[in-house]
Structure formats: C-alpha cells, structure tokens
Amino acid sequence: MTDPRRIGKPILSVEEISLSFGGVSALQGVSFDVREHEVRAIIGPNGAGKSSMLNVINGVYHPQHGTVAFKGRKRRNIDPHEAARQGIARTFQNIALFRGMTVLDNLMTGRNLKMKCNFLQQALYWGAAQREELEHRAKVETVIDFLEIQHIRKTPVGRLPYGLQKRVELARALAAEPELLLLDEPMAGMNLEEKQDMSRFILDVNDQLGTTIVLIEHDMSVVMDLSDRVVVLDYGRKIADGTPDEVRDNKDVIDAYLGVAH
Amino acid sequence: MPEEPLDTFPRLLLHHAKVRPQHPATREKDLGIWQTWNWAQVADEVRALACGLASLGFRRGDNLAIIGDNRPRLYWSMCAAQALGGVAVPMYQDAVAQELSFVLLDAGIRHAIVEDQEQVDKLLEMRDQCPQLAHIFYDDPRGLRHYSQPGLQSLDAAVQAGRDWHARQPSFFTDEIARGRPDDVAVMLYTSGTTGKPKGVCQTHTAFIRAAESGRAFDHLGPEDNILSYLPMAWVGDHLFSYAQAMVVGFTINCPESGDTVMTDMREIGPSYYFAPPRVFENLLTQVMIRMEDASSLKRGVFYYFMNVARRCGAEIIDGKPVRLAERLLYALGNLLVYGPLRNVLGMSRIRVAYTAGAAIGPDLFRFYRSIGVNLKQLYGATETCAAVCLQPDGQIKFDTVGPPAPGVEVKVAGNGEVLVRGSILLKEYYKRPDATAEALDADGYFHTGDAGYFDADGHLKIIDRVKDVGRLAGGALFAPNYIENKLKFSPYIKEAVAFGPGRDRVCAFINIDIGAVGDWAERRNLAYSGYTDLAQKDETYQLVRECVEKANADLAADPMLAQSQVHRFLILHKELDPDDDELTRTRKVRRGLVADKYALLVEAFYSGKTSQFIETQVRFEDGRTGKISADLRIAEARTVNADATRRAA
C-alpha cells in the first residue's frame, strides 16, 4: 500500500495575486504553493486577507491580477461551482449549513455534484436513481463514521451545539470527496476539548484520506501543531512562508502579531 | 451417535449452528445499517478466531483479555477462547492504563483482543510493566496504520491465519471443543474492588449455564427474543444476559452503533428482553420529564392526567390484580394516548421482561415503568453468584425486596444478618487467591455475600446494606449507610451521596447534585451558573437539596429500626465523585473509606459544628493529566422528624 501521507509535488500554486474592492486593496502580489497531502496554514492578524485568499482559491472572488493553478491547470477566474467540480471543498467561518435539515440530508447535499440522474428520475426514485442514492448514502455513512457523528444523524442541524455544527460542516465538505480542502477557522469559538477533537479529525482526514488541507486559524498552538508549512499575511502582503519553527522566529511575524512602534 | 451434552458454551454454539443455522445470532449497526450474522456464520467466525489464536500460541488454560465496547467480534472472542479451553477475561473499556495493568499481570495475560486505537495505546503504554503481553489484536484498524510495534496486529489478520490453520487441520476446532469439560473455568470477571485490589472471579461453564437456564425457565425465554447489548462486557450482568443466556437460549444479541446512539438503536430494534441498572431507567425518565416540560400545555395536561391514572391502577393491572372497570377503561384510553406512544419512544414497545439490578431502585421510578406497562422486575446477585440468586416472579413484585430465591439456589441469613448462598451458580475460586476464596466460601459450601438482609413475611429477600458498612451510632442505633444514601438518591436532583455516622452521635452526608436535573431546574428559574462547582454552592441549590434531604428524613423516620439515621447536616461537594479519581468503582459504587480519608477535613467540620470549610482537591482529567479545584464549602442543617412523635401519632 502506498502511503497517502507522503508529501508530493505542488497541487496548487497561486502567483502574484492582487485583489482589491474599489480602493481597498485586500491582497497585493501574494504567491505561495500547496503541496500534495500537506497541511498548509494561512495565518495573520485580523483583516490580513486570509479569507479573501481562500475565496480567490475557490473562485468566489476574482482577482485583478495573478493566476491560480490547480493540478497544473492555470486560470485567473473560475466559478465556485467549477472549483468544486475539480475537487476543491471548503468550510466557512460562519457556519453555512441548512439549519432546518438533518445532518444526513446536509451531508447528502455535499454529494450533489456527483449525482448524475435528473430531477424527474430522482423524484420517482426508480432504477438508476435508486442505485445512485444508495451509493451516495453509503459514502455519506463512511463520513459519518469517520467523524463520529452517528448519534446526530437524524437531528436537524439547527438544534446542535456550535462545536458539533462545525464538525457537520467538515463532514459535508468531506462528503464531496475533495482533493483540496479549505478550512476557514475550523476552531473559532470552540472550547479546549472541542478544539482537541477537531484537531484530531483534521489530522485523521489528512493522514487517512490523504486530503490536502489549507486552513486559516487564529489559535497559534493549533497552527503550529497541525501544519507542515505556514504562510503569514499582513495587510494583504505575504510577510513570511515556511515551517512552523521558521515562522515562529521570523521578526516580521512577531512584529505583525505583537505590534511595533512605527 | 449419541447427542453431545450441551454443557459448555462452545458446544452450545455448535448446537445452535446445527439446529437453527439461519436464525439471527448477532446484529450490529454499522455505517447506519443493521448487519446480521446467523448462528452458522457466528460458528464460522468463532472457529476462525479460535484457530487464529491457536496459531499464535494460545493454549488450553490461557487467559484471553478482551477490552472494548460491545462489538460482535469481542463476544465471539470469548467463545473462541473457551473453545480452546482458555478463559475469557473481559475488562472495563474505560479503565485507565494502571488499572488494566493490575489485571493483565494478575491474570498473566499473553493475548489481548481489543476494540480500537484507544485501547491499543493503553496496552502499549504499559508494555514495560507487562512484558508477558506478547500479542495484541485490534478489531478496528482506524488510526493504527502507522503502528509497527511487535506483536500488534489486526484481528482480520488473525482471522485469516485461523482460516488457513483450519484448512490444514479441519478437525482441530471440534477436537478442542470435545476436550473441554463443564467444570473448566469459562470466564474470569474481576470484581470492581470496592475494597482493596480487584479479584478475578473464576466461573465455570456449568455455573453460568445453570444461571442462564434458570432465567430461561423462569421467564419463558425463547430463540425469538432480542436483547440490546450495551452494558460493559466486563460486568456480570452483561455476561449473563448478552452471552450466557444468548448462548443457552439461542436468542439474538444486538450491538449498538456507538455509546451515544443507544436510545435510537433501542427504538429501532425494539428488544423483547431488557436489562439495565437503575441509573439507566432513571436517565430515561429524566429525559422524558424534561421533554414533557417543553411540550405544549395540551400535551402536558394529557400526559399528567393519564400518568395519575397509571399511578392509581397501572401497577395493579400489570400484576393481574382486580381493578374497577371504570379505571380499566380509563387506563386503556391512557394506553392509546400516552403509555403506548411513550413506550414506543423509549424503545420498550415489545418488552416482555425487563430486569434491573446492581443498585437499589427508587419506588417512584420502579412504579413509573410498571405503571406504563413495562414488566420491570428486580433481581439480586453478584459476580460470585452469576447475578442469579433471587428473581422477582411475575405478579409478585415489591419495590423494596428482590424476590424469593431462584430455583435451585439456597439462601439463608446468618446470625449477623449476612446473606449466605449455596448452589451450582457459585464461583469456583478467586484466581490465585486461596485466602480470599477460603474467606468467602465456608466449609458447608455457602458463599458469604457480604450483604446484610432478611426475609419478609412472604419469603422475599430484602437487602439493606453491606454487612461491613452496617454500624452503630454512638447511641447504639443501627446505621446502614447505603440505605440512607439510597433514600437520598431517590431524589432526581441527588446523584450521589455519602453518609457518615458510626461512632458519632448523629448522621451527616456529602451530596453530589445531578448536574443535568439541577442544571435544568436552574435554567427554568433563570439562575445563571458557570459549571458544577458554581451551581453546587448556590443558595437556591442548597435550599433545593435541603428539601430532598428532609423528605428522605421523613421516610427514614417511618422505619423504627432506622429512625435515628436521619441526616442532620449535609454539604454539597464541589466536584463530582469520579472513578478516575478512585472515589467510585467502575460500576459507580462509592469507595467509602477512601472518600472519608480524602475529605477527612470536611467530615471533621460536620461534627465540630463549623458552618463552612475550605478544601482543595486534586482531580484527574480523562487524558490522565491532573489539576486542582478548590472551594469554600458551606455546611447546612436539615430538619429531622422526631421519631418518637411519629410513632406515637401512628
């Protein structure tokens, strides 16, 4: 068996990305790459452009300059829909689930892109549509098992505590079987125990499914423990890039976080 | 060829595989779907497991450790060990590493079958202390891909090795079973160790088969019955119901998907036969009550109206006693509107027989289930007696006794009030502990249970306490701490209590509140709190608990033997008593001596008349780290009822 955890060639590279909203510049000439099977963290103070960067990668924002290459295909503008089709899934800083639907149904929506049958076939639930549904349900069940959320399978998402909702969101992203997973502050607002659980799940995803992960996180100890390499943004510019240890000792990073007299 | 006698568990397995090969034996919910193995398949799996163990050096007389949640392959592993003439040693899955290491060393474990990474990590951690532990097999490979420790392998690999072994030696498995004797030790269950180190209780095939058979005849169990297997496999109760009885009767065991899904799984399976300690019944009732509080006023009104009807006549109806026609009709309507749906929600629609044991059950709780039509009964027994000394027969149910002795079991009460038991269900010995064996089994073959009790007028046994705990107050009155604590714990707000008193002039008690019930109570009163410690020290909480204590005092005053045991002073502890801190056993019994020593400061404060006391306590978290919590605890007074006055009034 090959080891899915072996870090390989760059799977994603962003080059010279610049993004502005009217006169406000969010990102200025940012370049970095993400290698296959690694956990890559993007950190930086508030307003540094971290979420904007994720939005550029999965096509929500279209940068004015620069290119994004995913699996060797270079492009500047992409539809979020197309990004998902190519194997990029993400979670959001503010949970984006269907609150009235059960966990199971939310996860099934994660499989939507992979469903081939048309609306009519699905409505009749006959033949190919039935087989397809069973297949997708089986896949979703493995995700439920993986993230240990069997006990809330049939619970509407709106009734779950926050930490579990975050886990369900990760599950929904995983249901799409992504090659690249973008996590926007997966531990925001969690208590210590929930953070530990979430860290373990992220490592498990990376280790056992071989998924490449890009994550934004504020909790530095989490970042240092989880990631293979870290990019640091400040005011839309990249100020450091390297292993957690390298970044930790970088003077610009310390200044950006602790503040410096100008 | 004469029929083989069905006197060992492996022979029973082969028997079921022959007479009912297609009948479901084991079910497990996996990936959202119930998977079924019939008896023929189970026999095949057990054979593969047994041969796999044999191929890795497991020999007749060896002990096999089994650690994990209720998983089919762990149950089958017990039978596999027994087929080879070995002994199954199930252990508590939530025990910390050092607790496990005692048992592993004591039992000389060389082979262990465990559920998952969590258990593997624990075993690897203490390999230095237990060098004899050569082989560890895991059921679930998740997270273990990078482990390469010697002797560690997946159960799948062992099963495959077993199938190869069987192909080479097709008669090996049946030959080994044929060599087994009914008086071989089949299973070793470690006692929880309320006192001192755990002891391995050696039970033979005969003992557990007899215990299971008496239950079968008593409750008319058949192969069509279903049971949910969710209690710790190391507990004698689970071993009797999920293993011994399933093997003897041939009914189906159902393993839940995970510990958190038991409620849902129970609803899906609808077991016909059910066993749970009182705290499970209590949790279920608490959940129902909390949900009813949130229901619409119409639903709530209907619920309370019919629960009153059930309280008046439900228990009499299930006991087959005469009840007025009008009441019967009202009950039937209630059954349609409330009891039926409620049983359905609880997953108890199909229950014919349910048992509870392991601790005293509150009369209100017990009556609740019986009155909604669940045939809940009590049984009495211990690990040393295969949990089958007394059973309550249908129609003769009392909440404060455990019923007459089971068929074939002799029970007598010794001069000091201790309950003595004789019969085929007794342990063979304590493992490597002839001293303890000699102490427990006397020359006449009676087992000394250590329980104090007496027979009532109908010949039903009533257990009041442990003999060693029963003491005298300074004034000479009887002091039965468990009896007092149980009276306190019948309140839904009190989770745990520890009573003090022997040699003192009056009784005082520590209280642990039930964070679920009191938390909910506080929420309804808009009482903000940050956690257990904070909630426990609120004035309102003290007032609530004081009412509970005074109610218990009123109950105690009604019994002239125990009227002097009313609780005069109490305090609410700043932390929950926890097995991880050794304050409770794994079966959640209070380690009385240890608690008294650890909180000696507080006990002194009780009797020196102080109204508050500062204390700092070390706690151990689930991951093994330790921390400290401290608090200034208040000591409150509770009103007692003048026993003489009540007696005169009565």
Please give a structural write-up.
The complex is a heterodimer of chains A (262) and B (650). Chain A has ten helices and ten strands. The mean pLDDT of chain A is 88. Helices cover 38% and strands 24% of the residues of chain A. Helices cover 40% and strands 21% of the residues of chain B. Chain B has a five-stranded parallel beta sheet, sandwiched between helices. The longest helix of chain B is centred in the middle third of the chain and has 22 residues, at 297-318. Chain B is globular. At the A-B interface, helix 5 and helix 7 of A face loops of B.
Name a few traits of the molecule.
heterodimer, A: 262 residues, alpha/beta, B: 650 residues, Rossmann fold, GMP Synthetase, Chain A, domain 3, 5-stranded parallel beta sheet, 4-stranded mixed beta sheet, 21% strand, disordered C terminus
Short structural summary:
The complex is a heterodimer of chains A (262) and B (650). By secondary structure, chain A is α/β, with parallel strands linked by helices.
What top-tier CATH class of the largest domain in chain A fits best? Alpha Beta
Outline the low-pLDDT stretches of chain A. none
CATH classification, class level of the domain at 9-204 in chain B: Alpha Beta
The CATH architecture of the largest domain in chain A: 3-Layer(aba) Sandwich
Count of extended strands of chain A: 10
- Assembly type of the shown chains? heterodimer
Tell me the strand percentage band of chain B. Answer: 15-25%
Helix content of chain A: 25-40%
Radius of gyration of chain A: 19 Å
Order of helices and strands of chain A: EEEHEEHEHHHHEHEHEEHH
- Provide the CATH architecture of the domain at 9-204 in chain B: 3-Layer(aba) Sandwich
| Structural domain count of chain A | 2
What name does the CATH topology of the domain at 9-204 in chain B carry? Answer: Rossmann fold
N-to-C CA distance of chain A: 55 Å
